[in-house]
């Protein structure tokens, strides 16, 4: 049997302001496609002014990173459990990316600061 891992990214634009990105990891075999569990989380409110709420679907430890559109690291925090409030009041208005890394893998989303 031949196996290969692939990642599929789906991007949805909402009213031209920002986009949501979902990442799906799959293992492709000669006998079919099997979904590989991956890290999933939500952020809200989006757009945000001061505090961004992060909610993961699993209870574990995560590394949380916020980067700008050029890839510059702006915030890096450790998150324990499934929820965290992140102060983003120091960020200038614009589009940012939040990355979570944990035992179940890595995931990222975009968010907008007003």
**Runs with pLDDT <50, length 5+?**
none
Mean pLDDT, to the nearest integer, reads 84
CATH topology: Immunoglobulin-like
Biggest beta sheet attributes? 5 strands, antiparallel
Identify the quaternary structure here.
single chain
What portion of the residues fall into strands of 2 or more residues? Answer: over 45%
Terminal CA distance: 51 Å
CATH architecture: Sandwich
Write down the Rg: 15 Å
CATH class: Mainly Beta
SSE order, one letter for each helix or strand: EEEEEEEE
Number of helices: 0
Number of strands: 8
Task: Write up this protein.
The protein is mostly beta strands and 114 residues long. It has a single domain (3-113), classed as Immunoglobulin-like (Sandwich), CATH 2.60.40.3080. It has strands at residues 3-14, 18-29, 32-35, 41-44, 51-67, 73-87, 94-102, 105-113. The mean pLDDT is 84.
Summarize the structure.
The chain has 114 residues and is mainly β. Helix content is 0%, strand content 72%.
List the helices and strands and how they pair.
Elements: E1 3-14, E2 18-29, E3 32-35, E4 41-44, E5 51-67, E6 73-87, E7 94-102, E8 105-113
Antiparallel strand pairs: 1-2, 2-3, 4-5, 5-6, 5-7, 7-8
């Amino acid at each position: 049997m031949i196996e290969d891992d692939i990642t599929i990214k789906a991007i949805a634009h909402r009213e031209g302001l920002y986009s949501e990105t979902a990442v799906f990891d799959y293992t492709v075999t000669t006998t079919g496609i099997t979904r590989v569990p991956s890290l999933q989380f939500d952020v809200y409110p989006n757009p945000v002014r001061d505090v961004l709420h992060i909610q993961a679907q699993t209870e574990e430890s995560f590394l949380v990173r916020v980067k700008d559109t050029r890839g510059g690291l702006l915030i890096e925090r450790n998150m324990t459990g499934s929820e965290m409030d992140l102060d983003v009041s120091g960020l200038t208005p614009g589009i940012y990316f939040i990355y979570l890394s944990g035992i179940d893998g890595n995931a990222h989303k975009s968010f907008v600061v007003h």
